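Let's practice the habit of predicting before peeking. Look at the sequence and jot down your guess about where helices and strands might fall. Then scroll down.
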Amino acid sequence: MGAGESKGKEPEILNVFTPEERQNIHKLYRHIISSQTVLTEPFLKKYLYQWSDLEPVVFSAVCNCNANKGTIQDGKISEIHFGTFLAQTLKGTHAERADIVCLLSGQEYGGQEYGSVQLRRLYQTVFSVVKYYTLLGESDDPRATWKTDIKDDDISRIALSFLSLQTLSETENEQDRKCQYDVEQWISKCPMFSKMFDRVFTAMFPIIAKDSLHDICQSMLPIASNIDWTKSTTLLDTLSISFINYHLPREHQSIWRFLYSNSLHGDSFSQLTRYILGKGPNVILVQDKQGHLFGAYVSDSWEIKPTFYGNSTCFLFSLKPKFGIYSATGYNENYMYFNQGQETMPNGLGLGGQLNYFGLWIDYTFNSGHSKAVPKCTTYGSPQLSGSSEFVVDHIEVWAVGPEKKSDDSDDEDVKTSILDKDVAAKAILELAGKKQHSEGLRELAEDEKEMTEEEKKKFNTIPKLL
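Done guessing? Here is the structure:
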């Protein structure tokens, strides 16, 4: 790679890089070592001063990753060693990245301890990656459209959810201090964390070709629209928004359009109905009086009908006290329900389960609801989302997702619609003049329609005076 290193000695793993990326590696390596001839720990730590949570373990990861294991002497990292570490970290397989994550989490070597990871240390690594991802996201364009904060507790909850843990105390049990946690399998099943990992280490070691950066650095946040932040707030933090948005169909990820909040529009089911019916796919958020925050994505516009509708892309989710996504199980098709003014059917908004036993239900009285799941919701496989199975509503918030569906172009409508269809008086005058209509509704004007004769024009001009 460098001028002083033979290409014949380069390991095959370096072939994952383009010529542009190889040149970038060379430039970065020279930048880090400054006037030195080889990379050592003090210089790498100096370079990583902005990444203080990860800086103490990166040097060990470079030296001990599978691509370099046993080949680095006296802690002196050559440019080839540096490149192979980057190949494994930035473009590696699930197994290769799992090796890096384990090293960053203090994986031990030698004897029976090799491969064991302290769950607490693994959690700390995941926490750090999520933290740096959120910091990098502060400069993204969509972030400027949201007025919401993020706290360490939010980062902790999503880090725990990535590891399928309920509470932080689960990482502290003495018997689990050394766990044979299958990091490779976990990484393969947690693509959202992988995306965060990619962005963080691409920013830490900026050598990826420009034409490959868009997908890596693309924000998981949508643009927030149709909201006045001087009058409204949101229940969501940026990680919660990203979490929901990441799991939406791709065509609905670019923009969220604010529809309703009871803090702004009032505690009224009729108001909720007014603002959310017919608005297309949307996300509904519910916070109960116990502080649990949960909700649903629905694939169709809400409409009033006494039957279930929607499709299998709908899902339920929880955000507090833990993150979770609950997709359709295929057991039934009871995805979404919205009814009002019926005496024999439940009136309210529901998702999953069955009538009167929904996975999520908001009653038409608005202030009450339920989340029934014994043992789980049949439609979505979700547990009880609320603090109690019968809950009191604190806040409800609804966002339409994806670009707004445009109706037929008004200009085209004008072309196909006669002015007489819009002006009843003019239509009556024409009929009195002896001209027949083609239809009572919208119609295309006949291209061969004859102009009025001079006699007809005189009648047409005289009729208004008579009227």
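How did you do? Residues 7-216 form a domain with the Recoverin; domain 1 fold (CATH 1.10.238).
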